[in-house]
Structure formats: C-alpha cells, structure tokens
Fold this sequence. Notes:
alpha/beta; 7-stranded mixed sheet; 9 helices
Amino acid sequence: METSLIIPCFNEEGNIDTLVKKCETFLNDQKNQLVLVNNGSTDSTEKKIDQHTHISNILKVNVKKNEGFGYGVLEGLKMASGNVLSYTHADLQTDPNDVLEGIKLVKDKNDYNFFIKGKRVNKIKNNWSILDLFISYSMTLFESFLFQKFLYDIHAQPVIFHRNFYKSWISPPKDMTFDVYTYYLAKQKRYRIRRFPVNFNKLNRLSGTGNNETLKKTIKGSLEHIISSLNLRLKIK
C-alpha cells in the first residue's frame, strides 16, 4: 500500500530537521512518500527542506504565496503519488508518526471508502488552556449545527483517505475550513469514519508562532473560521 503524507510548512525553518527526523520510521518503508510543502514561507523553510530532498522518498513542493493551510495541502496532493493520502501539521504539536497508527486501521486493501482522523486526547496534560478547550468544544457545537452532521474535534490530525475520495472533491476551501470540508464530505458520502487517539501538545513547537499564541489572535482566528464556515456551507450541499 503506497501512502503519501503531505505536510504544509509555513515559516517552519526551526522545525524542519526535527520533523524529518521524526518521519524516519515512515520513510524507512520505500512505498511511503513524504511531501513537504513550502507554503509561501518568508523565512528559510525552503532551504531547510532542500537539505533533505536527497532522501529518495521525500518530495518538495514550493508554493510562492501562502493562501492558507488547505491550499498547501491541495498543492501537495497534486504531486503525491500514493493511493492512500494523508496530511498533518508541521509544527510538531502533532506527531507525524501518528499516520502509521492510522494506516493500521485500513484492514482491506480493496477498501476505498474510508476516512481516518485523529482524536486528540489528554488535552489538559498536553497543555491546553481553558480557552483552548472552550473554543474546541464551541466549534464542535457550531459546526455540527451548521452542517447538520456531528463534527467533533475537527482540526485533529492526521487525516487519511483513499485517492478516490480526493478525486471527488469540488472546489475545496484553501483555509483552515479545509478540515471541515473533508470531514463533512466523508460523512455526507457515508464513508467508514474511524477516529483514533492522538496527543496534541501545545508546548512541543520548537520554533515559529501559531495562530493561538495570544488572546487577540485566538479570537480573531475563531471569528475568521466562523465566517469561512458560513461561506463554505453556502457552497456545498
């Protein structure tokens, strides 16, 4: 089974070496492919990725202008060679090795109608604030009501699916509602959805800054997400 893992990297120069190191077990299987997307970075992320492209099953995709997390994933998917496709974050708050656990849930090589997604556990132990928890659970309620499907822990990673699912997408969003789109569409198509426990540690980021570094950014990001979700709901049935 050939698996491609797409990881968009936006200003992650200080995390790339550790990220690739963590992916060693995944890369030891030559059927696996790691697609590192320089997602319009303004730092030395592209140069750091270039230092690892001598590894035969690492592919670099370069995006000149950052248009959002979803856009970075989509650009990586265009170049990916695997029949099984997956994506996750580059900031080390998620462990890229989680994809190996997720793939184990694919029992039948002829099963195309699966959708596998992490489920973040031990949130307090993983340094989630009360505000983080409130926003996460609030988004579950909001998105579930908006899309009339139970959508929980929407931004948990990794996400794993067959190439056939990817081929069915129509105008997917470029921003963080990309996670909402894939999750909702899998439910709409009645795919076999499997969730498995993963840790998402807020303190594991070695370098760079996230969207939730300050209260102001957190509130701004949440409002932008709500508006984007409303726009997405108008586009899809």
